[in-house]
Design goal:
The protein has 81 residues and is of the alpha+beta class. The protein has a single domain, classed as NE1680-like fold. It contains two helices and four strands, in the order E-E-H-E-H-E. The chain has a four-stranded antiparallel beta sheet with strand order 3-1-2-4. The longest helix has 11 residues. The protein is globular. It starts with a strand and ends in a 9-residue tail after the last strand.
Length: 81
């Protein structure tokens, strides 16, 4: 599955993964307000076997399929504010 990754300009180390480039329609408005204007970072092919630095590929894939997005926060940061 093709995946598009955006970084937050407001919260260092926070990334938003989407299934469509520049399509944030499935991301809640309140989250987008906290995240700020997404800055495109890169695109890649997500597979269950792929090694990701800070997330489990299967979890990312499950969230993308269920919600249309995945939010990756910095390690140890359990809240987004």
């Amino acid at each position: 599955m093709q995946c598009f990754v955006y970084r937050s300009q407001r919260k260092k180390g926070t990334y938003l993964f989407t299934l469509e480039r520049d399509d944030f329609s499935k991301v809640p408005e309140s989250l987008m307000n906290l995240f700020g204007t997404p800055e495109f970072s890169f695109a890649f092919e997500l597979t269950p076997e792929r090694k990701l630095i800070q997330a489990d590929a299967q979890q990312v894939e499950a969230n993308l399929k269920a919600n249309g997005f995945f939010l990756q926060m910095p390690p140890g940061d359990e809240r987004f504010c």
